[in-house]
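Fresh eyes needed here. Have a critical look at this protein's tokenised backbone.
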Amino acid sequence: MSNKLHSPAQAKLQRRDFLKAGAAALVVGFSADATLAQTVGAPAALRNPKSVAKDAVDSFLTIEPSGQVTIFVGKVDLGTGTKTAMAQMAADELDVAFNRIEMVMGDTATTPDQWLTGANLTIAQGGGELRKACATARQALLAKAAERLNVPATTLSVENGIVRSSQGGATVSYGELMQGSTAFALKVDPKAPLKPASAYRVVGQSVPRVDIPDKVTGKFIYAHDFRLPGMRHARVVRPDAFGAPLVSVDDSAARKVSGFLQTVRKGNFLAVVAQTEWAAIKAARALKVTWGPAKKLPDPTQWTAYWRQQPLAKEEVTQKVGDAPQALANSVQRVKASYDFAVQTHASIGPSCAVADFSKGQLVVWSPSQATHSMQTELASLTGLAADNIRLVYLDGSGCYGRNGHEDATADAALIATLIGQPVRVQWMREDETAKAPKSPPRVMDMEAGFDKDGQLVAWSGDFQIALNHIVAFKPLDFPLLAATDVGLPKPGNWVGFLFQNSGAPYSVPNIRVNTRHVAETFFRSAHLRSPGRIENSFANESFMDELAAHAQQDPAEFRLKHLKDPRGVAIIQAALKLAGWTPRVGPRTDQAKAEWQSGRGLSYVRYNNATTYVAAVAEVQVHRQTGEVRVTRVCVSHDCGQIINPDGVTNQIEGGVIQTVSRTLMEQVQWNETQVTSVDWNSYPILRFPQAPKVEVALINVPGEVSWGAGEPTATAIPAAIGNAIFDATGARLRSLPFTPEKVKTALAQTATPRAA
């Protein structure tokens, strides 16, 4: 197997301890061989195109005469461990050794289109399709073995790719059964029997991730490391001002830069090409460019009011139980609260990068895109090439979990390569990534609930102002790429994710009405950011549930359990309470009024999409009353994603989801002025630092035989409300506007922050 494994005997290091140690603890070796990156993944190393039809077994796997198995999946590993997890699934379904499996992911010429990697579906949908293909292959191999060994197929068993009969006698390997071929020429049988959970040998085990050793030692080839012989370097030049057209360009100064090769312009698309990256940077800075008038952005201090006033494309009721309007009208007490979630960006640690090569009418692009197959369609439109003449090959990027600048850098590289007819590398600058990558759209949520004369919750109402999503699930993605807009091929809308999901109330209430208002146009170019819609909607729902518990003068955990009928949901909350050592309490703490730092804990519960993974989180915080600073010191997460493929991988995803979302909750928000985004670096768009990472404790609930759902995205949805509820527990101040900056905390501390009763 080309991917080397950790030794199980390796000493374990707590992730948080490693992060807190910072750069001083990071000692890695880097190869001094300058040719390493030049040779890895070069055109000669590309695999030959093969079947990619989703109904063909050959699209998913091949078996060499040696018994080596290669698995081909259209999904990609975004640092989430899916390469390891899918190899585990294939190993069990085929009855082969894990170390005999090689994974190929996200290559449009060799892997089937399994839609984008995201939406919590990589393992459930992509892995499910892989299992069916492997089960079909195993079934066919056993039939061949029965014929070869002249025994009934019912007597056969397989161990590590060796077939034997319970009647004894000869054995035969998978490699021998392939008879010199690697292909099956079979359709995937949708009824092929899958292994029961009781037969798993590798699934359910904490198999060390196959990518980690090379990543730790610096041998791993990221998109940023990738080189091609004769490759050029390019920088795309775009206006700071939003929507400003290109009027003129004078490249006379750029031509004097050593290493400058040429200026490329097509419509409003402008780039410089040079022999080295540094030369490209200097040449881009030397250009004298005149831009036209910019579009006006809304007042950043009034964006919530602006968002509420925007024209709607549609409005629809997404959840209806009983008659909520009538129940509210009859309620003895009504509680209202409004929440908002700031515009955020992906804040990838490294800026986006891609490499493209155009030769003899064929375009090959090495890209970190989460949707390589969809990018074929996008690049065909951009370049004028047929999609069959375009190949996307996935390489890991720096940062992901949504759509940052990876697709845009991919389009930039593809366009330049086709215009100059040479291989070219495009890497964005930090200001490009932070300011020009697509943003999560804004969000406002209005909640109302009603109690009867006996103090029982009888009505729940929610109105969610969300961005319109133009895309249908499992269809090609319609990315509004900057390069396409620049050359005059603008796309009609945004791929923002299914923002209505998790707007529905996760609790049992006699009367529920949830309404979503889809805003026709966003003021920024928008895209999905991790847990799109679910994180914002769950923040509102779980914050509001906490407010209702306080109003009802009940412990927040007991109040939730009282209104939850799903036994797996009840179990997940109870597991989180146990892990955290929860002590029931009605209302905020009253014993630390004079303390400089006030401590509290908050609970949040989510079932992702109200249909898949269950998560409950308890956050512990400290709040400084004078400065408004919030420290998240500990987060306890209980997690039920069905059948667990790799427990350590799931834990890793949970820990990462917590840390990333603590950052989003406490500090991340895009800043802008009248014409441009002003968040251009780590000072203007800060993210969580290593010493600020909380201690994360995890309780996993495995449900063998159930569908295996994702882990990272569902975890993220539970964190903002848990932190906000913890701040309320510590101080009595209710935070309804995210992020919870010190200024907002101080304002909330100075105000009465309890929900208002009508």
User: Anything to note?
Assistant: Residues 17 and 427 are 32 Å apart (CA to CA). The longest strand covers residues 457-467. The two ends are 66 Å apart (CA to CA).
